[in-house]
């Protein structure tokens, strides 16, 4: 079967792209479109042309398998030119998604119609580049500068309805998706009957009313604030400005030069790494690749606190039945009210419609009777982080749960093998480490225990996909991937504070690196008492007591963070803005003196390196221990769960870009200045550095 075919329907030539799964615009598709456009224009019996795609979507974008490779002929601009310069009207018929190059192809057509369920967008900035097939020049000519700015700078797609209202598409097709081909033929027939000439966007001007300079300035300011540190959004605004000030051909040349510069930038490489890493993370290990997931529709959740309710909301949103267990009537009432309040808020804010609200409320039930979980397919325990509590619950579940039910613990640190050992079904048990709030945070660490069955692991990954989580598989160790690495990051923040850096300096340095908040802000937000209680369960060999001297003092003064109005920072009533506190400075000086530490001036560079390189070094140890399958899985964990700046690619990619030899040297420097207990390069890191390799090379081996 041909990738791109041409058939006639009356006086209409229909060019159909059939390149599953998403009709990516590969070399074969590009060549096929040009061939069939030329054939249709050479056929005197064809008066108009419809460009359509088979399968579940219109052309969803460029072929990602060609990323980073030398360009293959014909190039994208040649396809764009062939469509726009066609003497016969060309109508793009869009369903599914028209993203990136797919939308640019549609913009090169003279007219567009879309199925009501379609989405259209130019998401290139999320890959560190800008639209490169004249999309920045055509889109503002069609829909105006405000919408073009919003779509291109944010990278977010819009609905077919909004596209129709804005004039991006000329017709909206309702009903089943198979109505689109008929509607496209009818639209093309009308174009012929009306004698409508091809409308070439390159020959149009951008509508202007004198507010354009202000719009551009606001867009730059918004991008600086919302997409802090990112290069591509600002460059996209430069390209859109060219659409206002330059003739089309000159604007297109400007767009091309900006695209080439963006493609060569470290940010585009990092963002494209993140894109591919997310997809690799979804792959099952070899021993589970042929496993058939167990069917599931009913979810049990034990614990109706913030985490349990978040997990419930995520499952309800995916259309799953949820039965929640709470310990007593008072806790049950709080949890029920929390769920209903969240659903009401989702309705009020337009996140769900009335029908979905009604459905989700009907899917939810809550009780104090554990036997209500007897029919659940997957049961998730989400109670306090204490081993004996969790073991007690799993003993009870072993008696209640049906045969074949999957039992999951939401532990953040504890040994899943130990929890599984108290049951008679260890093969059915694994960890599902959600991040709070679980209905919003995207990351899910799926923790494979020693005896977890392959089909249980496959089912957990399918559940993650169904509830729209980015899942990363980890194996059992203290803290798994994310929290094991986090200990070093927070340790260094605590030590830096003791050694002379002010909390606000530490947090600002990490924010300037690209994090949404600094480590000490994060501790205040989460609550210092949580770490305080966890440390009491750990041996002293696992952490540096000096790092937590100040925090321990603060907790014992009932300064636990935002929730008590004071922690490392102080907070004014009703305001979460962290404010410096001289009382904390005094405590820090006292604790430094007790520890025999001479305080000094510390540079922002040292703050960044000690916090970030602690992640890298522990990440290398995690790979050595085979806790993570890939370095890129560690990157995904930190991008989606811990706020690591996406445009830096993740801690392991960042280290590779910087040079592992340089990372090793810097770690050794810290070993000389602050001690070798924590600052000795991991053997894997040292080996890769000596061989001139990267963590990407490690993943490929």
TrEMBL record:
Subcellular location: Peroxisome
Domain 3-hydroxyacyl-CoA dehydrogenase NAD binding: 298-474
Coiled coil location: none
UniProtKB keywords: Fatty acid metabolism, Isomerase, Lipid degradation, Lipid metabolism, Lyase, Multifunctional enzyme, NAD, Oxidoreductase, Peroxisome
Reaction it catalyzes: a (3S)-3-hydroxyacyl-CoA + NAD(+) = a 3-oxoacyl-CoA + NADH + H(+)
UniProt xrefs under Pfam families: 3HCDH (PF00725), 3HCDH_N (PF02737), ECH_1 (PF00378)
Domain 3-hydroxyacyl-CoA dehydrogenase C-terminal, chain residue ranges per copy: 479-571, 607-693
Major subcellular location class: other
InterPro entries the record matches: 3-OHacyl-CoA_DH_NAD-bd, 3HC_DH_C, 6-PGluconate_DH-like_C_sf, ClpP/crotonase-like_dom_sf, Enoyl-CoA_hyd/isom_CS, Enoyl-CoA_hydra/iso, NAD(P)-bd_dom_sf
CDD domains reported in the protein's UniProt record: crotonase-like
The UniProt record lists the keyword Isomerase: yes
Domain of life: Bacteria
Record carries keyword Nucleotidyltransferase: no
Pathway: Lipid metabolism; fatty acid beta-oxidation
Membership in a protein family: Belongs to the enoyl-CoA hydratase/isomerase family. In the N-terminal section; belongs to the enoyl-CoA hydratase/isomerase family.
Protein name (record): 3-hydroxyacyl-CoA dehydrogenase
Organism lineage: Bacteria, Pseudomonadati, Pseudomonadota, Alphaproteobacteria, Iodidimonadales
